[in-house]
Design goal:
Blueprint: H1 2-29, H2 35-38, H3 40-55, H4 62-65, H5 67-70
């Protein structure tokens, strides 16, 4: 008898959850245009004005083409390849016993 009671209780809880999810989904997908949706074009206009300001920026490339820039030398050094380590650095090392914690 107790099993039947908990089984029916589980079924009721599952039905309540499914119904809640269905109602929330219906509410989210069936709402009409709100004030936030209407204000979206205003935000879009602001974004477009920022894009126009960025596009209007002109860069002077004569610095890169100049003789002084071209006379600069590269002093970087090549990075030498290093040997690859263990596949799993956290795996126990063979021949070494791990420490056990004593709870202190």
């Amino acid at each position: 008898m107790y099993e039947q009671y908990t089984l029916s209780k589980t079924k009721i809880a599952l039905c309540v959850i499914v119904l809640s999810v269905a109602l929330i989904g219906y509410d989210q997908f069936s709402h009409k245009a709100s004030a936030q949706d209407i204000q979206a074009p205003a935000a879009n206009t602001e974004s477009l004005s920022l894009v126009n300001k960025i596009e209007s920026i002109k860069l002077d490339t004569s610095i890169i083409k100049g003789a002084v820039f071209n006379s600069l030398e590269d002093f970087s050094e090549e990075i030498k390849p290093e040997p690859i380590g263990r596949l799993n650095p956290f795996a126990p090392i063979n021949g070494v016993s791990p420490r056990t914690s004593t709870g202190r």
